[in-house]
């Protein structure tokens, strides 16, 4: 495992191009494009203001930089550095900006979600979409980039509009039977659209591509409902994480619950392996402690950690949430399927230090990772069943069916890993700190 | 004189209650006159007469004394003993008093008796009434108990219900609380947003300079796929619709195919399972005659045949519901039978295991023997391998090629020399043999000649003898004897010529002597004729050396060297 040197970045804005060749980072108002392998700077662009959001176009030719405060979007071309494009939303403001799947249209959501403006780079035309809904996930593109689903709200009622991304033709517009539509997501095969209600009501609606309601699923009433949703890559399963600390799996044939995964604080299942991170703090001799020594021996404060497998039954530490606060820290907040459909990683907010990995063939837990700090982020390798996670300390943790390993990022002065994402080839991980980034190249397989 | 027994009778009739023990002392009285009235004077007179007055008096006195009354005295007056009137009257008066008292007591007792009877009746009546009452109250009591118990049960269920309701209420309250906080949060958020909106609106109204939205592009970029963009027409719309439906349909078809495949595989699996189960169960039918469920098995035997025929039918037909259900039912049936069979087997095994321990042991022994044999086999193979290795080592010991070649040559040399010697010997012997054969043939020829001569001489001598013996035998006999002799000579000739041919034959073939008697007599015969082998036919003598040579010739293939060879 090799680590690259550290580069600056701001706002956690760092993205790899879809073809995997380039790495774009934003440092204040500059946009830096590097080659992924050599990390040499290829292009350097200067934006008009501090960049709030940055995105690659799908063909890896253009980069979009949005500056929300100024209501500006600047588009840069990789092939032609002289080419420039600036979109000014005017007084209407800008809340979010994204590419369309064909890489030639930019969708800007104005302030207060008044409308979505569709700018075309091909013919400078503008289209408007009215009444978009401001919710958790109001807009989603299908995997093949042909259709876009948009959540709308008119006259206190929720609607979903399906557009054809080719020419932004409105294909379908239908009302949803929800109290407060919270999000829409296409299935990976592009034929089913999942729409769910806000947390006040547990309701999952499944629509076919042509707007027919296929099925409704509601696990229970009155208590807080859906917190997170994930489709399996094969479109066979829909995982719904809810506030009752359970993940329910629906199957794509009957749209009925296949099983539910319960995050019980006491683990007794013998098939689940519990990896507990154990820290070993070095003993610091207090007598001969001098500033020089501290400066030289940075390893003095190195905290070694490794994984231990405690015997069953194991108690997972639970943090009781504050019952008086809204959006309580309880329930499944993150679900992710592995790319081979085999594993499901979940995080229960009231067990913030643990990540659960479930085996989809056995429909049971296969591993529980217990860290020493709350898990900040985890992501699956896009090529193989390998999970990378970080807890905000200087280590990168990897889990695979073979075992678990913790790697310290060998950066001087410490590197607090706040977030991470995989390169599309699965060969490297980009680690993001507060204002730094580092690449980790996977060379060898993990050992236990 | 009246019998005093009569008086006694009177006593008994007057007071039947008062039984005096002195009655036994009284003379035996007949009871015949008991039926007489109580107050008959005739009885009185019968008791006492003029004669037995003193006895009667005595008796009366006795009785009076027994009763505690004063007695009667007898006064002797004028004409015989007579009763003192005063004492008699006293006695009578006392007796009357006694009688009255008795009557009174009787009356009293009777009244008492009546009273007691009525009291008793009254008490009995009361008793029964009270018993009834008691029974009644007991029943009431049990009824009340029952009622109380049911009420207790009801109380408990109500309490439980109350508890569950309370819990539900609590849960609902907590839910309401969380929802309320969520609503409040959302409401606050919306309020904040609306406030921002109002502010922005205000700002916009105040701020006259309206920044128009615009896009500045250096030059238009082509489409990603390089094609030109198309106009938005209804045809386009239709095409979009069509594409959408196509996508949906292809997805459905794909899923349908997958499901069909899965279905077919599962059906195949079921069929296989059914066949396996049938095959497993059917052979048992013949062997297990003592099984109680034989009938069902026999039935099963007939059923699978029908079902197997079904299986051979067109699979399309089998897609209809009935066939599917039939298959499922038959599978279930077979499975149940298999289960029962397995249970029977298990019970049998357990029985057998408990009864016969030796079987288990023998199996263990068998396994042990197998492992032992395997070990032996392994050892043997190892041994063989080591031996092979050693052998190879030995063979490949002379690693040097030259020495190896030399050694090889050395071995060969010895063999070559030996071979040469043998060849020389062989040639010698061959030559000897040839020579001897030549000698033999010459000798045979000579012998033949000599024999011929001898036979001729003999014939001549015989002739002369015969002629001498029989002078007047005709010329005819002479001719015949001559012919006879000629034939004998020719007969003698015959063996010689074959002998000649035999020798020529024996020249060519050193191999085993032929056994053709007609044309080629064997070497043994030749020897016999030449008298090499002791024979009574000829009497030719041979030299010592010739004999020895013949011996060596006989054993021509032996390797033993003879230093004293003829040549």
Automatic annotation (TrEMBL), chain A:
Pfam families, per the entry: WD40 (PF00400)
SMART domains with a match to the protein in the record: WD40
Protein name: Anaphase-promoting complex subunit 4 WD40 domain-containing protein
Species for this entry: Electrophorus electricus (Electric eel)
Segments traversing the membrane: none
Gene Ontology biological-process annotations: lens development in camera-type eye; retina layer formation
UniProt superkingdom: Eukaryota
Gene name of the record: WRAP73
Organism lineage string: Eukaryota, Metazoa, Chordata, Craniata, Vertebrata
One GO cellular component term noted in the UniProt record for this chain: microtubule organizing center
SUPFAM superfamilies: WD40 repeat-like (SSF50978)
InterPro entries: Centrosome-WD_assoc (IPR052778), WD40/YVTN_repeat-like_dom_sf (IPR015943), WD40_repeat_dom_sf (IPR036322), WD40_rpt (IPR001680)
From TrEMBL, chain B:
Signal peptide: none
Name of protein: Afadin- and alpha-actinin-binding protein-like
Originating gene: ssx2ipa
GO cellular component, as recorded: adherens junction; centriolar satellite; ciliary basal body
Keyword flag Coiled coil: yes
Coiled-coil ranges from the UniProt annotation: 249-276
Major site of localization recorded for this protein: other
Region Disordered, residue ranges: 11-37, 117-146, 283-312
Protein species of origin: Electrophorus electricus
């Amino acid at each position: 495992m090799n680590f690259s040197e550290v580069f600056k970045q701001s706002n956690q804005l760092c993205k790899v191009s879809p073809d995997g060749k380039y790495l774009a980072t934003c440092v204040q108002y500059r946009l830096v494009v590097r080659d992924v392998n050599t990390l040499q700077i290829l292009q350097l662009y200067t934006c008009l203001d501090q960049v709030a959001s940055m995105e690659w176009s799908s063909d890896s030719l253009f980069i979009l930089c949005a500056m929300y405060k100024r209501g500006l979007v600047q588009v840069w071309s990789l092939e032609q550095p002289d080419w420039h494009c600036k979109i000014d939303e005017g007084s209407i403001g800008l809340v979010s900006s994204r590419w369309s799947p064909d890489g030639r249209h930019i969708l800007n959501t104005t302030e207060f979600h008044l409308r979505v403006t569709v700018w075309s780079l091909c013919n400078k035309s503008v289209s408007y979409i009215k009444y978009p809904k401001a919710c958790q996930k109001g807009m989603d593109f299908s995997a093949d980039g042909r259709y876009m689903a948009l959540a709308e709200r008119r006259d206190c009622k929720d609607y979903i509009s399906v557009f054809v991304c080719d020419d932004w033709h409105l294909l379908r517009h239908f009302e949803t039977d929800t109290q407060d539509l919270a999000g829409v997501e296409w299935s990976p095969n592009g034929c089913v659209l999942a729409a769910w209600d806000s947390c006040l009501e547990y309701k999952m609606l499944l629509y076919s591509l042509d707007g027919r309601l296929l099925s409704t699923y509601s696990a229970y009433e009155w208590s807080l409902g859906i917190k997170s949703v994930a489709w399996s890559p094969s479109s066979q399963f829909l995982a719904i994480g809810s506030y009752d600390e359970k993940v329910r799996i629906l199957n794509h044939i009957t749209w009925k619950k296949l099983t539910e995964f319960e995050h019980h604080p006491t683990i007794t299942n013998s098939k689940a392996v519990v990896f507990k991170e154990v820290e070993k703090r070095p003993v610091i001799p207090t007598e001969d402690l001098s500033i020089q020594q501290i400066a030289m021996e940075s390893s003095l404060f190195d905290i070694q950690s490794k994984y231990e497998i405690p015997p069953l039954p194991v108690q997972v530490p639970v943090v009781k949430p504050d019952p008086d606060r809204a959006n309580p820290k309880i329930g499944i907040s993150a679900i992710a399927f592995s790319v081979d459909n085999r594993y499901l990683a979940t995080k229960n907010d009231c067990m913030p230090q643990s990540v659960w990995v479930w085996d989809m063939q056995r429909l049971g837990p296969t591993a529980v990772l217990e860290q020493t700090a709350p898990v900040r982020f985890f992501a699956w390798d896009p090529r193989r069943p390998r999970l990378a996670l970080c807890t905000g300390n200087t280590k990168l943790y990897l889990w695979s069916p073979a075992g678990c390993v913790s790697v310290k990022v060998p950066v001087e002065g410490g590197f607090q890993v706040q977030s991470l994402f995989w390169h599309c080839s699965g060969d490297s991980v980009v680690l993001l700190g507060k204002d730094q980034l580092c690449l980790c190249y996977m060379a060898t397989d993990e050992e236990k | 004189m009246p019998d005093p027994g009569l008086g006694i009778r009177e006593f008994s009739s007057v007071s039947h209650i008062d039984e005096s023990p002195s009655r036994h002392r009284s003379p035996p009285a007949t009871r015949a006159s008991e039926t007489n009235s109580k107050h008959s004077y005739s009885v009185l007179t019968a008791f006492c007469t003029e004669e037995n007055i003193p006895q009667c008096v005595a008796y009366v006195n006795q009785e009076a004394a027994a009763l505690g009354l004063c007695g009667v005295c007898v006064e002797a007056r004028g004409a015989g003993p007579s009763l003192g009137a005063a004492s008699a009257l006293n006695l009578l008066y006392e007796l009357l008093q006694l009688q009255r008292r008795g009557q009174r007591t009787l009356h009293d007792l009777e009244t008492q008796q009546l009273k007691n009877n009525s009291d008793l009746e009254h008490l009995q009546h009361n008793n029964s009434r009270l018993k009834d009452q008691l029974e009644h109250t007991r029943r009431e009591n049990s009824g009340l108990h029952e009622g109380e118990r049911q009420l207790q049960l009801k109380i408990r269920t109500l309490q439980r219900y109350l508890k569950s309701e309370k819990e539900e209420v609590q849960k609902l309250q907590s839910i309401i609380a969380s929802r309320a906080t969520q609503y409040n949060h959302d409401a606050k958020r919306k309020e904040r947003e609306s406030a921002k909106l109002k502010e922005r609106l205000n700002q916009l109204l105040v701020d006259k300079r309206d920044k128009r939205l615009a896009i500045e592009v250096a030059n238009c970029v082509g489409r990603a796929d390089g094609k030109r963009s198309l106009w938005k027409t209804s045809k386009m719309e239709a095409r979009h619709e069509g594409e959408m439906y196509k996508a949906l349909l292809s997805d459905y078809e794909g899923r349908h195919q997958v499901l069909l495949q899965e279905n077919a595989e599962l059906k195949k699996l079921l069929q296989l399972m059914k066949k396996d189960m049938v095959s497993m169960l059917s052979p048992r039918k013949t062997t297990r005659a003592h099984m109680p469920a034989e009938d069902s098995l026999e039935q099963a035997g007939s059923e699978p045949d029908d079902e197997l025929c079904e299986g051979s039918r067109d699979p399309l037909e089998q897609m209809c519901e009935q066939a599917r259900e039939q298959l499922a039912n038959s599978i279930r049936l077979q499975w149940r039978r298999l289960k029962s069979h397995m249970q029977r087997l298990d019970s049998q095994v357990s029985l057998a295991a408990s009864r016969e321990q030796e079987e288990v042991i023998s199996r263990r022994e068998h396994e042990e023997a197998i492992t032992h044999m395997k070990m032996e086999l392994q050892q043997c193979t190892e041994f063989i391998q080591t031996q092979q290795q050693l052998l190879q080592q030995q063979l490949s010991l002379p690693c040097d090629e030259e020495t190896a070649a030399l050694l090889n040559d050395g071995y060969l040399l010895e063999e070559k020399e030996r071979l040469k010697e043998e060849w020389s010997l062989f040639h010698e012997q061959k030559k000897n043999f040839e020579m001897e054969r030549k000698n033999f043939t010459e000798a045979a020829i000579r012998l033949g000649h000599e024999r011929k001569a001898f036979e001729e001489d003999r014939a001549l001598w015989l002739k002369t003898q015969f002629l001498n013996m029989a002078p007047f035998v005709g010329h005819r006999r002479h001719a015949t004897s001559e012919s006879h002799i000629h034939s004998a000579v020719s007969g003698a000739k015959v063996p010689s010529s074959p002998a000649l041919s035999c020798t020529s034959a024996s020249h060519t073939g050193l191999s085993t002597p032929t056994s053709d008697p007609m044309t080629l007599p064997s070497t043994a015969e030749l020897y016999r004729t030449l008298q090499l082998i002791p024979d009574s036919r000829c009497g030719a003598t041979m030299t010592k050396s010739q004999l020895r040579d013949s011996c060596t010739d006989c054993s021509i293939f032996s390797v033993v060297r003879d230093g004293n060879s003829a040549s």
